[in-house]
Design goal:
The protein is an all-beta fold and 109 residues long. The protein is built from no helices and eight strands.
Length: 109
């Protein structure tokens, strides 16, 4: 709850421990519409090379979601990135430097 990262070219790698082989999982990010931004989530194999493993993304209003099937019990890494989208419409109001979001993981039944 209440995660923050730089709004311009912000990225963070999350390690998801305790996944069970052949189980389906959902990772979801929600964020306020008051901070115009575009988030993306993708699975990565090696946290050092950030190689894309693919995903089944679903974009909802102010939410980004990925559903995946764990291939083994090794840790899964999820790369979250954000970019600004739009501009502040009020005069003399500075652009935000940080994006605020919530991230969660659940087992899909």
């Amino acid at each position: 709850m209440g995660e923050t990262m730089l709004l311009r070219r912000g990225s963070r790698l999350y390690r998801l421990d305790g996944t069970r082989s052949s189980a389906w999982y959902e990772v979801k990010i929600s964020y306020p519409a008051s901070i115009p931004s575009s988030f993306s989530i993708r699975l990565v194999d090696d946290p050092h090379s950030v190689e894309d493993l693919g995903s089944m993304n679903r974009r909802l209003l102010n939410t980004e979601k990925i559903i995946f099937k764990a291939q083994n019990s090794w840790p899964v890494y999820v790369l979250v990135t954000v970019e600004p989208e739009g501009v502040v419409a009020k005069p003399n109001v500075p652009e935000r430097e940080l994006a605020v979001f919530n991230i969660g993981m659940a087992v899909c039944l």
